[in-house]
Amino acid sequence: MSYELIAGVDLGSNSFRVQVGRIVGDQIHPLDTLRETVRLGSGLTREKLLDHASQQRAIAALRRFGERLRGFAPDAVRAVTTDAMRVARNAPLVLLQAEAALGFPIEIIGGREEARLIFIGAANALPAASHRRLVVDIGGGSTEFIIGEGTEPVLMESLFMGGISYRHRFFPDGKVDKKRLYAAEVSAAREVEAIVVDYQRRGWGEAVGSSGSAQEIATLLEMNDLNPQGVSGISREGLAGLRQLLIRAGSAEALNLKGMRADRCLILPGAIAIMSAVFAELGLERMTYSDGALPLGVLYDLLGRFAHHDTRDATVVQFMQRYQVDETQVRRVERTALLLLGQMIKLDDVAHENDVHFLRWAVSLHEIGVSVAHGQFHKHGAYILGHADMSGFSKRDQARLALLVLGQRGKLQKLAAMPAGDPNWRLLFCLRLAALLHRARDDQPLPEMSVREAADGFELDLPARWQAGNPITATALADEVLVWRRIGITLKIGTVPRDRVLQLERLQKS
To answer: What would the pLDDT profile of 67-126 be if each residue is shown by its tens digit?
Structure first.
């Protein structure tokens, strides 16, 4: 699958952005960028609910974005949302409206996944370098810190501090004085202090700022000659000078500086406080700026999926290694699960590509909970997958994997809320049956099997002779019939007619 044009959508806590790029070889040429100041984070109430006004601003912006993306293939657009949606308790309901307005699915991503994508975007917008880079991205609700080599991040962290959240906490009326700014800086310093040792131990040769806050600060310093002569970007001296000018003005709105943008006044005091703390705690003297950030990182990550360099595949392999998964058993179960699924859908059909990926990943990870404890290992595995940092996976992706791993054994009433017709039922059936048939963990060949999807459930045919010769498995299959019946889904297990066995054998040989 390949596309000429792809798009990345970043729904941040302060602004929403769309970046459209053209794929040329293994590079992306940015063609168009849209940006709207939505201030989603400003709409979070004390109860962590997004208020009606912020929802309406978001929906209106997404409708405009949707117009620009009209005609794009579903797989050519990836939309992600960050801190405000991670925090909001009503995010699921808001997302339904947001996806309808945009016309594409929207993924809530975790802080470290956000950090990974930011680094990829920043690094691809900068000249190649042999040294490590430290990238700092101050957003509306969180600040990401990443050390990486080339275009690969090696150390990532997301801290709960941002320009909007600090505005509400320290400058609610917009007024800035020495005491308030110092309090904000101390708060940010405490957050950064927790990562200083690890980051300084890893080391870097260049510090880079990305996204709007770093760009705004760099622009103000350069256009108003606040940096030392010949120095561009953000300098310690220039930042200290801007800090003093802000205190003297009493508010960002009162700052009379070249390059000052009215739509950034809300976020600027918090961003200056956080950046000052970053410079102080990490011992920085200078920071350059990269135009690339989260949207460009999303584009390059999307490009990797098209080129079969999907970060999610690498993450699954890492988890298998970390939790010492029995790879031989995984391959047994995967082979059988795909054999079953392939009798119900076309595995090479683009429409089913995502389902095939998720079945493979779920099989690869279905026993990671054994490393915690064998008893209830499916529950341990589901918890890990639902809560771990998994590069490339959105929160929704992780929830789907957790659901499949949780449902691989035991009662299915725990999943009864899943609607009838959901493709996950089909994947669960294949995973459960494959795991059951390979419970002995040996390489004894399985019989020829025939499986069909019926209106009220599934139908499985196995040779009568094999069932008679494997009474333990036959009993387990009978129990499985009861498990599905309890949630209103029929599983019929019959025998394969002799002519059908011969037909299946011929298909297998061909």
So the answer is: 999 999 988 999 999 988 999 999 999 999 999 999 999 999 999 999 999 999 999 989
Q: Which CATH number fits domain 447-510: 3.40.1130, 3.30.70, 3.10.350, 1.10.4100?
A: 3.30.70
User: Residue 343 contacts by C-beta under 8 Å, 6 or more apart in sequence?
Assistant: 450, 451, 452
Relative orientation angle of helices 52-68 and 91-102, to the nearest 10 degrees: 30
pTM above 0.85, yes or no: no
CATH number of 126-290: 3.30.420.150
Specify the DSSP class assigned to residue 145: E
Domain limits, the chain: 5-109, 126-290, 310-446, 447-510
pLDDT tens by residue, 368-384: 999 999 889 999 999 99
* DSSP line for 372-403: T-STTHHHHHHHHHHHS--TT--HHHHHHHHH
Evaluate whether 5-109 and 126-290 have a shared fold: yes
Query: Sign of the C-alpha dihedral, residues 261, 265, 266, 269?
Result: positive
CATH number of 5-109: 3.30.420.40
**How far is the C-alpha of 356 from the C-alpha of 426, rounded, in Å?**
11
